[in-house]
Amino acid sequence: MTIDIFWNYFVKLYLNGYNMPNLLAASSHHTMVIRSDNSLWVCGGNKNGQLGTGDYIDVFVPTKILQNVTYISAIGDHSMVILEDNTLWGFGSNRYGQIGDGTSTIYDKNNVILKNNDKNTPIKILDNVHTVSAGRFHTLAVKNDKTLWAWGYNKYGQLMDGTTIDRLSPVKVMDNVVEAFSGKYNSFVILTDGTLLACGFNKYGHLGDGTIKNNLTPVKIIDNVKLVGAGIRHSVVLHANGSALCFGDNKMFQLGNNSQTAVYKPIKIMQDCTVITASGFHTLALNNDGSLFGWGCNNYHQIIDKPDKYIRKPIFIMDKVIDVCGGEYHSITVDMNGNYKCFGRNDCGQLGNGKNTKSSKLVQW
Questions:
Q1: What gap in Å lies between CA 283 and CA 258, rounded to an integer?
Q2: Between the N and C ends of the chain, which has fewer C-beta atoms within 10 Å?
Q3: What is the pTM of this model?
Q4: Which fold has domain 226-328?
């Protein structure tokens, strides 16, 4: 695939209304990519049907499952996709109703499944969806009318509806939202005026409001925000001026300031950025010249092929990158030629190299 073809595809998605098209998704155990023909390809762990292949068998090489896909999201064991007709589809783990079809998988006190309502094939959830974010156990979606809808696990108020009640079906939460981002037990939304709101679990200060207090209702964090990366204990924000701002836990140097001290309000780490991502304990940022940088936990070489367990501050990884996504312990990039490169943990085949063994080398699709 030529540079022009891939770049035209990227621009086409942007012009259709997406702030930043989600071409890539990297979760705790699986990987998804949208190719230039709008086909969805998957690989990795499939214990809960999160690959959408119709079974529960892990897949070690990229496998096509859907066509006409424009947006994807996954950081846990369920997956959400938006098709060209703006319909939202979900598959995978449904323990807390995070698929949104009105059901949930029921377990006994010994964690044995009594009734399996996980979905191993895509099931339609909503119409007229603009963007979606599949968190660890909950899901947020923004419709074309800028309404926010939420469902799934809600112990810490991460559904942003002011309650701690789990929702098995989508519930409308608020208006005037353009983007939503789900973490493990927390959530972020960007309003039409660029205001960032946060809600949910905040033990590590990763909501960015200056406290370690959980919030059942959304609290304002900062203005002029474009993107958010919600790690397990930290967060990264892309400001409209191109700055990458980090906050939260820092024991694994995931804030990138050469310190292990937690920070409870956003601090600037890099500038001239176009994409940021954080899902596990590492952070990745893409500069506007196509150069990729990373920092934080590197125990599976999810940042760079070096023996260092931690990367204390931003380190150059590669160039000519146009998009990047960080999973819990692995990462994936796509370059201007449409080449996908995966690196990091591979216990379930999420790197797509036909194996499920650790590899410190880049895997190119």
A1: 13
A2: N
A3: 0.94
A4: Methylamine Dehydrogenase; Chain H (2.130.10)
